[in-house]
Amino acid sequence: MAEPKTSQGPPPTKAQHAPYAPTTAVLGGTPSVHTDVPITSIFLVLFILGAIVHMTILQVNLRRRHKFIMSGMLFGFCMARTITCVLRIAWSKHPTHIPLAIASQVFTAAGVVLIFVINLIFTQRIMRAAHPHFGWHKLANQLLHAYYISIVVTLIMLIVCTVQPFYTLNLNTHRIDRDVQLYGQTYFTIAAFLPVVLVTIGLLTPRAPHVDKFGEGRFRSKIRILLLAAALLTLGAAFRTGINYKTPRPRADPAWYHSRACFYVFNFAIEIAVVALYAILRVDLRFFVPNGARGPGAYSANKVAASLAIRSEENVFDDVSEKLRRNESPTDEEHGIITPPTPPNATATTTITAPATAGKSTEPTAAQHYEKGNAVPAVPGHSTVAEQGNSRPDLN
What we know:
Elements: H1 33-63, H2 69-93, H3 98-110, H4 113-130, H5 132-135, H6 138-163, H7 171-204, H8 219-245, H9 260-280, H10 283-286, H11 298-307, H12 313-325, H13 332-335, H14 366-372, H15 385-390
Helix pairs in contact: 1-2, 1-9, 2-3, 3-6, 4-7, 4-8, 6-7, 7-8, 8-9
């Protein structure tokens, strides 16, 4: 039986009801059970694992009072991609169900924006460390906040103009929706590439004599991680944007760049690579900055303050054990004993001495024995100092 005209390219007729089936080819095409379900299932498992890993990192860090919100954002991205994979699998089993196709395309286009924002946050921290007076400038902060707001507004516009063509047959509306889609995809491609531009400018311009270091690891390693992730995301965004600038092709005659291989490589494969990269290289430790850091030098200042904080109970006991091993007496403070101060009106302790005998003893004193080099005679019922030293228990 011949395929309906709606799938061959001509626009739908008014006899059909909304939502209308698309008439132009899209990236990845209509998924099929035999091809798309196995591939999408693999990515589904990978994104679930990514969500588990980043949520575990977030929870462990929160227990240690190590607040790193970007781990939660990566968890949110993985969950969004999990929903995308589920929708694509459902769409492959119901290829004529237009609402599933709409939802799948919306989640595919919108999810990656979270990683773009994460990279911009990392870029801001690098710029503040290398160029503190510029990075911490009030105008720079305001511009970045305005850019975040513009990303949200552009995302809303892109979602609306992705859904609207399925519910109207007006050609002028379709043209406007296409223009907005091109604008939104171009804008997000710039957002993906912006970290590369800013970091490169920061490296080429004269920097501060001392970098305001933050987190763990070398500063140049942070730059390399960010540039690698930004380059991968830019590749995917640029490919998706570039094919949309091409003249639309009929649904029944897609080009090579509409293939399933291009869809999975330039969408899911690149994204899961970045998710794994950030988990393996522990960006939660490398890009961590102290809470409340404000102004030039705040990163390293807070880091030094944290290192000079009161030692933990474990470190104190380690010091006590080390002194006992060397046969040294730990101080009262290390034992946790606090000696109360002597009250100002307290009377001094009177030393009571034994009454002198009528006649002086002719027996030499211990000091005289020591001066002559003789051994100190033992007192009945008491051990000598040497005996006390020999009888000391072994603490090693």
